[in-house]
Amino acid sequence: MNAFLAPVSSAIASVSTALEGMGQAFSAASEAQIALSLAISALLFVIGLVGFMVRRNMIIMFLCTELMFQGAALAMITVARMHMDVSGQVFVIFILTVAAAEAALALGLVVLLHRRRETLSAEVWSDLGEA
Amino acid sequence: MSLIWTSILMPIIGAALVAVSSSKLSRSIALLATLGSLAALTLFAFEFPAWNNGQYHPLEAGPAWLDAAGIRLSVGFDTVSLLLALLTAFLMPLCILGSYTAVTERVKEYYGWFLLLGASILLAFAARDAILFYVGYEFTLVPMTILIAVYGGTERRVASIKMFLYTFLGSMFMLAAIIYVAWENRVSTGAWTFDIDTLTATAIRLPASAQYWLFASLMVGFAVKVPLFPLHTWLPLAHDQAPTAGSVILASAMLKLGTYGNYRFALPMAPAGGTELMVVVAVLSIIAIIYASLICWVQTDAKKLIAYSSVAHLGLCMLGLFALNPVGAEGAVFYMVNHGLSTGALFLCIGMFYERYHTKDTDVLGGLAKKMPVWASFMVLFTFASIGLPGLNGFIGEFLCLGGTFIAEHDGQSGYPGVLGPRFAVVAGLGLIFAAMYLLILLGKIVWGPLREPHHDAGHAHACLPTDLNAREILVLTPLAVACIWLGVQPQPMLKAIEPCATRMLAQYPDEVQRLKEREAQMASEALDATNLAQVPQQGGAR
Amino acid sequence: MSSANFPIPQAVVAPEMAWVGLALLLPLVSAVLCTICAAARLRGKWPAVFTVLALAASFVVVLRAYNAYSGPVQVPIFEWMSFAWGDGRFQQFTAPCALYIDSLTLFWMLFVTGLGTLIALYASEYMETEKGAGYARFFFGISIFLFAMSSLVMGDNLVMLYLGWEGVGLASYLLIGFDYQRPSAVAAAKKAFIMNRIGDLGLALGIFMLWANYGTLQYSQLFQAMNAGGQTAVDWDVSLIPFLLMLGAFGKSAQFPLFTWLPDAMEGPTPVSALIHAATMVTAGVYLIARLYPFFALHPDALATVAWIGGGTALLAATIGMAQYDIKRVFAYSTISQLGYMFLGLGVGTTYGACYHTLTHAFFKALLFLTAGAIMHGFAGQLDLRKLSGLRHIPGWRLVSWTMFIGCLWLAAFPYTAAFFSKDAILLQALTSARWDFVFLGWLGLFTAALTAYYTFRVWFRVCCGPVHFEPAADAHHGDAPHGAHDAHGPHGHENAHASKAGHAAEHAFHPHAPKWAISTVLAVLAIGTVAAGFPAYNEAFAHGTNWAQKMIAGSSAAAGAQIVEHASHAAETADIHAAHATVLGMEAHTGLLVVGATASLGGILIAAYLHLFSRASADALRRVLMGNWFTRWLPICMERKWFVDEIYHGLFRLPLWIGSQVLHFGDKHFLDGVLVDGIARIPIAAGKLFRPLYGGALQGYAVSMVAGVALVLAWMTWVWLRGFE
Amino acid sequence: MVPTIFYAASAAAAAALLMLLLPAARKVRTAGTVLGLASLAWILVTIVRAIPVTDSALGNVGMTVLCAFISVAAAVRVITHHRPVYSALYFVLVVISGAALFVLLSAEFVAFSLVIVYAGAILITYLFVLMLAQQSPSETGGADAVEYDRVAREPAAAVTCGFVLLAVLGSVIFASPRSAADASADQVAAVERAWADLGRMPDALLERARRTDPQVRMVVPRSNGAWIETQRDFTAVVSVQRVDSDIASDLVLSPAMLPENTARVGMALVTRFPVSLELAGVILLMAMLGAVVLARRQSELADDERRALAGLDRLAGSEASPARSRG
Description:
The complex is a heterotetramer of chains A (131), B (543), C (726) and D (327). Chain A has 131 residues and is mainly α. Chain A has helices spanning 2-20, 31-54, 58-83, 87-117.
């Protein structure tokens, strides 16, 4: 029983410590956690990428780019944590900025395109092709 | 050196002028530019000091072009390349003069591209830097493709694309080989250079296996251009579709880039590889001779016939080159020049009746001696030059190529042991018979016999041309005829001049061939030992 | 293998004799002048004038050279193809433009240039209907021929010989195809050139082989090297040299495997047939073998092969000649047959006999052809001996008839004619040989002589004797007859009777024009020459003087003949001793041969007289009998159809090659180009089709390819990077 | 060895993703889900087993794994769900779990801004647009979504590319073991920088000094001109004047006195990346302007198009351009 609950209780403890903020930021991060976080960021990025390629709804495609932003941001944060440096976090703030700007413009464009063809499918816009 | 650059740049400047001039003026500009180029080259030839030593002249390195890669604008000629460049420069004005009435649309572009073609061929022959050679060699494809694709016959697109891709693919191998040698040179000396002499010196020190691949890949590039069986199929189509002047330059100068490449790169750079693969190349050459000759026999298209005959003739040229003795090499080089003259002239002749009748089909057209006696005289002359009649130019090269092949096994006394020998010469000699056969059949169809003309009214659609040749056309053919006869009667100066180049090219071969022979003898004796060993227990068992 | 020393006189280098080169140069100059005449569109007889003058001048040059002759000389003129890459004997190639003049050369040149002049004169009248471009072209061809023939004979080396060899081929091609609008003439010209080329290849290979073994191609050096012993250096046996050279000789001289071009060559104008295809060019093979005679000892069977081919061809051609109806064709086959004799002579070892026969043959055969030409000229191209009769009785044709009679007597080797002596020399050598096969060939030759006499006089009796009757040929236009019709399909036996009826109508409308001065003069001169050609033999036989011809031959490389044969056949005695003691049919050899030869000749003439003069119907009857019988039927058919040699060649070589060519052509287009080349080109096209959907314009297609590219590049980079860590 | 297992797991994950993307039966999708979760677990376990976890970090790692499951599963749903609105909502889940991961990585400020900006602002915009472009049921043909939402485009190629990329990224994770020296050097540098940051925050410095020693009156610059000086043991020394004396004396600040994360981010923004900060502002401004322009253009274009369509209608038979759509 104790053995079963031990990870849970230690997890809660660690969250509370983290929320307190101080101290933990300057202790060496667990390598496993870093690796896991990087793996998650890779997964998010790849899933976003795959989504961008397979989804045909323009809005979802943009949503997928946001997923990729998520992955990238997570990688930034992870590496920042690894080096105990705040530049990564600063960069994520910029990413947020760009994402917001992109969302505003992209969605504007999507609405524009939707107006012209009455559909959100990306494939009606294939004027790049030779045919 | 400035004369060399003058001869190369004159056509380029001419092309620039043509581009901004009017259509009417363009052909005169083109003619003047090519004549200027020829004049510059002739002047150079007069003061050329290296006729008798087989060396490059001038020898100093040119200005840097791409310094980081050691590519320099070095130009210079040895006898062989000078002869081939002179041939090119000699044919260019004739081609332009011959195109006066043949080209009526997009005239400016035609002459512009044609001049660029000539300039690039001259550059390839003049280059003493491998990359510069490659630039000239490869750039010929661009104007030629355009000449075929725009001014060609009905299948011009396919023909031009096939020509471009085929030869381009081949020259990629060649480029790779050159860069490989340059890299090896860089490894050993620490500096990049593409100077041909330096590369050759580096390449001959490579191990035999490296030379084998070096030779093979150089050969692939040049064999496409030559073209060697079975890489020849682009040529008949390209010739068939090209405008007359294009065919002339293609056959006379561009194909020579292939044989010249063998002379300049493949053979001297990779003697070990050349020795290994000599028999393969020789067999392919012989197949080319017989195969192309037989195909010529059943051709009904005059131009395709001459195109296939080029395949056969250049097969003989390659055979002479790969006899690996001075006789064959002399013959091959001589043949390069003379094939250019006689085949170029034949293409011009065919172009002249094509302009009048708009057909090259020997089943439809025939007996033109009745209507065009002057043309017929020239045609007969050039045909016999191509057949290799002694006293005309074709004979010298043919005879020496075959002779060189024949005596190739004549080791010990000539100083150049060989492998090919009489067996190869006999089979290749059949080509002489076939050459007479198909060319005389061609003559019999289009020159002799009762007059046959195509029925459609386009018979004499070309208003500005008389029935027989006009003065301009005679002016085009006469220098060629004079050259054909002169070189047949007085080949001596040229043979003397080629000789040092030939021996220089073959410098490494006596030793290599000797080594090969020793190796083979050793293998044979080992095989004999092996069979003897195998027999021993058998005999024991029998007892 | 043959280290025997043959007594070949050493040549002296004599640059001061360069004027002999005029004999080569003058015909070339006249060729150039003829070209200028053609270019200037002159319609006169200028080309003929130039040619005759040039040839006469070169004859004079040769005469002067003959007078000045005192031993073999080498006359350098200029360097033609010479280069060296070392100092060794085998490290150079030397083929200068130079002359080698010995008695054999002069012997040949005398009759070549002499006959050339006469025939050119004859042609100036014969060809007059062609005045203009054709006239110039004709004399251009004659001039080129004379140039090439001179180079062939006088050349100092085998490359010069080869130049002449092919040059006469060119002249022959141009002149056979003179009437180029007639397809049969064009085909004949082509056939002549190509069949000659087959021989030429043999010659070229022989030249290479000589070069490879002896390191030189100049006669004098070759003979020296020969005496010094050859150096076998190629993997082929050096004894193949004579066989390769032989092939060249057989091609040029129309011997057995390569003879079918000569009858077809009769498509050319008759002076051409006389000069090139009877008197001079076809003897080039004899000259070649005589010139390089020592080398024919390199293989013991080489000369025997020559003899067998010569004897066989003589018989074969004679049998065909018996059944031809076209006069020129009869003469053409007789030429082949006579050339066969010459080769027989060479083969059995009498170069004198062969060369002397060449000389006599040159005269009488030229005469015969020229009379045939005169008939053709006068009768609008008629040459069918069934359609001409009794020319002897027509005014103005007597000269022709009687000169033809002289020619026929000589060809039939009538006793005490020049040809009798020359043929005698050959047959004597054969019959008295120690080899049984040579003796057999001698008897075969005698039989052939009888056949020759028969078919020769068959012509003369048919054409010049009997009742006067003639039909002009269908084409009134002067030129050469359309032999093609008779050529392929044998005539039908009873034609004669009907033809004469049909011909009467034409007879009244048509008046043959008798020859004018040029033709008459030439015929007369030639007839005298024919008779005079016997002089050397008469001098020997009756005055016991020296035989000029024998002296000429004896001074040259051909003289090695007898010794070589003896050497080859391992006989102890020399030919002369052998001949002196030999017998023919129990009589002393010379007497015996006189009897036998006279019998053969007279027998043939008598049979011809019976069948073709006294009882012409019996000739048809004989033919009917032969044709009616199953067992003998093949004989006339084969003779008329020329033993089907052309057909056999067609089936054996030409057709398979042609089919092969078609297959290759198809394969080249559809397999090599279509399947292989285009097939390889289709791979990138197929790959492009595979990826094409990615680039249809939709954004994500580009995204996919971009990501794939990035992923691959990253993967590769990572792989490289990781390898660095391990 | 380890990367190989990771590749296998990634391949399994890719296969699962493909199964989910293909328009297949429910069973297949269920199998895909199971396989996907299993392979995700496999990936995570591979990582955890490859790198030893200290007990103290056990909690963090456990939480990270939990968040990983949530965020990856949600991300997959974003790209596989047929209805865009649900995709958007799943994306909110990704953002929230991502924020949790940020917190676990001691990036609280960013975590909260992420939730606020993304979940609060961006996603709402998306939802607005989705609603705006919502298809009516008639358009969807009775299915739960329109065709272009239901059918994936070239899933195989995309998944393959994705798999290769994942393998590459995974290799990088495994290939870079960090040495302890590196880690401690990072730590030293980070602490030093944090103390230096504190030196530039006078109020915070004073506050911390007072917290350490209530007697501190003021902090004064040290003899070398700096406000603060770092010690070896992560402590720092400041010069202070106590209430009771004018003489400056040293005061040692313990590591607990280090500035908190948010303060450091803020400090970095204004001291180390001021230009970037300005640029970000410009970008936002431009985006705003762009959105305005687009919105204006939109209505104009709509008018143009309506007019053009009307014109085209008059010219019978040339409806080519709209008909070219390949939907």
